[in-house]
Structures are given as C-alpha cells and as structure tokens.
C-alpha cells in the first residue's frame, strides 16, 4: 500500500541535499583517490599517470611494514581493554550496587575528554625525568624508561592512552548487552548452586559475545586508523616518530608534508584494503565464538 | 534468603574495591591536570612530586590568553561544532525520513551509495576533499572546516532507523488533516523523533569538538584553528610555554564537553549506546 503511494517530487526535496553532499564530498573523492594512486604529483602541482609505480614503491617501502607492525601492536594492546571493560561493566551491573551512577560517570570521563588536550596531560605524566608515572614506579623499585622518546615505549605509551580512552565506550556498549540478559537465568543458576564465577563464565560471557564481537570489530577498525593520540602525545616533530608512526601518519606526512599526493593516495588505498580485509576476516571468524541465541 | 543477601553484600564489597581502583585510574589524569594547572613550573618538575601546589597559580589561566590565541580557537571550535551539528540534524533527518518512509525512483540505489561510504576510512577522502575546499577558496576558514562534516552517511542511517520505529498512523492522521509531506515531517514527525535527534546531536558534538586530522590539514593560521588542532600543534611551543599554562589551556579546552557530559550524563550514555548498537 505504502510503496504504491505517489509522493511526487517531495522525496527529492528531502534526499537531494544529502545525496549531493555525499556525492561531492565522499563518493567522488573515493574515486579520485583511487585514480590519484596511479599518478605522481609534478613539481608545479600537476600530475602524471605512472601506472602501478606507487604500489611497487609501497610494497618495497620498509616504513610501510614498520607502520603496519606498529598499528598491529597498538591495536592488540587497545583490544585488551575489552576484557577489562567486561569485568568493570559486569561489576557495575550488579543488582543493588550503590553508587553505580557515580562509577559510570568516572569511567566515561576519558571517553568524552578532548583527546588532544588529555594527550598533553599524559605527555607530562609520561615524562621520563619528572613524570609522575616514573616517580610512582620508583617507589616500587623500578627505573622507568623515558616513555615518549624511546620507540617501543612510545608506542606502548600511545596504546595505553588509547586503551584508557576506549574503556568508557566499551562499557556503554557492554552495559546495553548486559541489560539484555534475562535475570531468570541467574536465578535458575544460583538455585542450582552455581557460584558467581561460574555464572559469569556460563551465562554472562557467552551472552555478551555479540557485544564483544561488535567492540572487537570497531576497535580494530579504529586501531588501524591511529592518528590523533599518536600525533598529540608524541608531537609531529618528535625524533621517535619515524619508528612509531602509523599508516595514517605515513599518509598525512606524504600528502601534506611531503606533498607526494599520488603515493599518499596509494597509502590511503592500502588502509582501506587492510581495514576491509580485517573486517571481512572478523565476520568470517565470528561463527566460531559468537553466540546469537 | 538472608544468607544470599549477606553473600551478595559481601561480594559487592569486593566489587566496590575493584570499581574504586578502576575509577581512580580513569580519574587520575584529570585530577593531576587540575593540580598542574595551578602549579608553577618548578613544582610540576619537582622530584618527588608535590601532591598539592603550595600556592594556587591562577596566573596560568590568565597567561593562556596572552600566550595562545585561545579565545579565537575556542570560538572556531564552537562555530564548527554548532555548524556541523545543526547541519547534520537538518540534513540527516530529512534524508533519513525520505529513506525510511517515502517511495521514489532510485531509492535503493541512492541508499546503497550513501551507506557504501560508512565502511571507508576517512583518509581515503581527505586529499580530494582538501582540493575541493582549496578550489572554493575556503582553506583556513570556518566554512572549510565545517563543509564535509555536515553530510553524514552514519547520521542518515541513524535517523532512518529511528524513523522506521515511529508508527505510520501519526503521519496518516496528519495527512488527513491536510498537511503536505513537509508539514507532516516538520510538525508531526520531528517532535516525536527527539530522542533520535538528541543522540545524533550528542555524537556529532563530541566528534566535532575532538576532530583533529581534517581541521589540521585545512587550517594553517593559529587563530583559525579549532582547539583540538591548536593544542595538538603546541609541541613546537614546548620550550617557551610553561607546562602549567599548557595544563590550564587543556583544562579549559575540554571543560565544555566535560560539563555537557556531567549535566546530560544519562542522555549521553543512551545516545552513544543507541548509535553503537545499530
């Protein structure tokens, strides 16, 4: 019935502004980037078709592999935030827990803070000489490294910041998942004498797997687009950057610092391909561990 | 029953211990920032650290306005966030409504094209978007920062999903009362869609206030940058601006979103949950 109704020209009034905007600012740029990735920027701004040259350079570029490895390490550490968030969210969801609202506010603060502003704070916390982190480590007898000037430590520092920022979002998603678990399941389990830990493992975790899956997909996609925390925590001119850079930093550097648009476009296509492949892989693999009943 | 209750109380005590430890880790950087914003440079760099500043350095805050184009950047952030949010609320709700409720030619194709960009990382669009803004002469301008962000496939999708849940009888009644589709949308459907609009607004405000890469490439003059970019590019100033001033600036830059969150907490949480699960 509804489908047969003639709406005349009205729908176009509603849809065209968005469709044109998306066309101009997203669909066309997508095609343009694909095209650009086969060109080279000339000294006076023009560009010339170079075939697959950018891609052969890309494949031979050690920096690209380093950036991929950095992104993998970063993403793996941020993914550890998911089990932590499961623990916190399930504690927060306990019936009769007092002060849940207060806890929730505190856990969500990092998620709503301005990333570049809070990165400045962490930069001082991480400072090798007077940073409070190393001073705390000294109390337990550990000599902390100079976190943001040594390659691997800098990467870990960026990842810990990413983990800290993501917990709040993870908890929001998991809380919604927890609310969907019927309380009778726990009633029945405790009548059968199952302990809290057994209930957590047999009921909570399996029924949360769809939320956990969603989070792992979103975290991986975001992880491979690492830029903001890296840029703000370490600073673009940090000497450590060549060793800790991400794919997006490589892209930014080629496009807007090195003015090598064709190569940058190829890096962008690589990011698209990697994110696409990882997402497809996660969706394939989910059948083994996600339960939807 | 009593034994179960006391067991629950006992284990909630353990829950509180874990949650308090977790909240401390979450809160610590904010508290430390607050402390540093009121400390002198010597106090920030002292070893071992002082837990409280000996004398509150209010001058850090006034110095922010002298040393950095803070107010300019603040207003750029406000204008960009307001522009993007209002733009998305209007455009995404219109398009979402048409996709959810109207029939027209090429609807399936248009929807597929709009949604196809959801999975594409934003870097893929960045260079051509930059070139468009450049040819419009909008580099280093507020409209240049706002432009691509008022169109959103995600927002359109979110509103479309929301409109699908609204009962059709409402629109039927409006039509019988003689409303044209625009009047129906404006007077009848939008007021009912408030929860969806609020979710979209919250997500857009947070994302827009925090956005870094796009405004970073579009702007070059410090006073035309939003705060996100202004603070991120401070690395070069490090030697000349004392850390206490930086902390005061960072505190003031994040204050608006933190206040928004604390005041509208439930709405923010629901908004993010709503958008995250679709």
From TrEMBL, chain A:
The keyword Magnesium does not apply. Coiled coil: none annotated. The lineage of its organism: Bacteria, Bacillati, Actinomycetota, Actinomycetes, Propionibacteriales. This is Multiple sugar transport system permease protein. PROSITE patterns: ABC_TM1. It is found in: Cell membrane. It is a multi-pass membrane protein. It comes from Kribbella italica. GO terms for biological process: transmembrane transport.
Automatic annotation (TrEMBL), chain B:
The keyword Ribonucleoprotein does not apply. Keywords: Cell membrane, Membrane, Sugar transport, Transmembrane, Transmembrane helix, Transport. It is a multi-pass membrane protein. It holds the Pfam family BPD_transp_1. InterPro entries: MetI-like, MetI-like_sf. The chain crosses the membrane at residues 12-32, 74-97, 109-130, 142-163, 197-217, 237-264. Belongs to the binding-protein-dependent transport system permease family. This is Multiple sugar transport system permease protein.
């Amino acid at each position: 019935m509804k489908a047969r109704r003639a709406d005349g020209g009205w729908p176009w009034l509603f849809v065209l502004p968005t469709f044109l905007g998306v066309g101009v600012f997203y669909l066309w740029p997508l095609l343009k980037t694909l095209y650009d990735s086969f060109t080279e920027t000339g000294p006076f701004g023009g560009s010339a078709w170079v075939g697959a040259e950018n891609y052969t350079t890309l494949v031979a570029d050690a920096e690209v592999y380093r950036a991929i490895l950095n992104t993998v390490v970063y993403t793996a550490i941020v993914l550890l935030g998911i089990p932590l968030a499961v623990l916190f969210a399930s504690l927060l969801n306990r019936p009769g827990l007092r002060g849940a609202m207060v806890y929730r506010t505190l856990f969500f603060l990092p998620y709503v803070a301005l990333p570049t502003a809070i990165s400045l704070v962490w930069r001082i916390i991480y400072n090798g000489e007077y940073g409070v982190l190393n001073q705390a480590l000294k109390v337990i007898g550990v000599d902390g490294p100079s976190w943001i000037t040594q390659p691997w430590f800098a990467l870990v520092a960026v990842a810990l910041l990413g983990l800290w920022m993501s917990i709040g979002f993870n908890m929001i998603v998991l809380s919604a998942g927890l609310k969907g678990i019927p309380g009778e399941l726990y009633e029945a389990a405790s009548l059968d004498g199952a302990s809290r830990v057994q209930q957590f493992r047999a009921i909570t975790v399996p029924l949360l797997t769809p939320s956990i899956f969603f989070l792992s997909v979103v975290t991986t996609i975001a992880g491979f687009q690492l830029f903001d925390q890296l840029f703000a925590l370490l600073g673009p001119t940090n000497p450590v950057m060549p060793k800790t850079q991400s794919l997006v930093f490589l892209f930014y550097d080629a496009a807007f610092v090195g003015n090598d648009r064709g190569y940058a476009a190829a890096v962008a296509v690589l990011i698209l391909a990697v994110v696409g492949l990882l997402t497809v892989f996660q969706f394939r693999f989910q059948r083994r561990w996600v339960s939807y009943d | 029953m009593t034994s179960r209750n006391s067991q629950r109380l006992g284990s909630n005590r353990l829950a509180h211990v874990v949650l308090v430890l977790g909240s401390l880790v979450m809160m610590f950087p904010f508290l430390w920032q607050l402390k540093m914003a009121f400390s002198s440079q010597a106090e920030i760099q002292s070893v071992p650290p002082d837990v409280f500043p000996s004398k509150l350095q209010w001058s850090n805050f006034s110095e922010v306005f002298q040393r950095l184009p803070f107010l300019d950047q603040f207003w750029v952030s406000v204008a960009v966030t307001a522009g993007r949010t209002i733009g998305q609320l209007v455009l995404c709700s219109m398009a979402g409504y048409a996709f959810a409720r109207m029939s027209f030619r090429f609807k399936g194709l248009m929807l597929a094209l709009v949604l196809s960009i959801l999975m594409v990382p934003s870097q893929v669009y960045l260079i051509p978007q930059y070139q468009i803004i450049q040819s419009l002469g909008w580099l280093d301008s507020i409209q240049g920062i706002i432009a691509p962000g008022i169109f959103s496939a995600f927002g359109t999708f979110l509103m479309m999903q929301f409109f699908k849940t609204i009962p059709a009888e409402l629109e039927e009644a409006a039509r019988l009362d003689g409303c044209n589709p625009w009047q129906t949308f404006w007077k009848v459907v939008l007021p009912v869609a408030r929860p969806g609009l609020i979710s979209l607004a919250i997500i857009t405000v947070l994302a827009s206030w925090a956005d870094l890469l796009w405004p970073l490439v579009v702007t070059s003059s410090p006073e035309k940058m939003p705060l996100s970019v202004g603070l991120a590019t401070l690395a070069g100033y490090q030697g000349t601006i004392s850390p206490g001033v930086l902390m005061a600036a960072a505190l003031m830059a994040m204050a608006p979103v933190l206040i928004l969150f604390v005041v509208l907490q439930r709405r923010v949480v629901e908004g993010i949950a709503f958008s995250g699960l679709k």
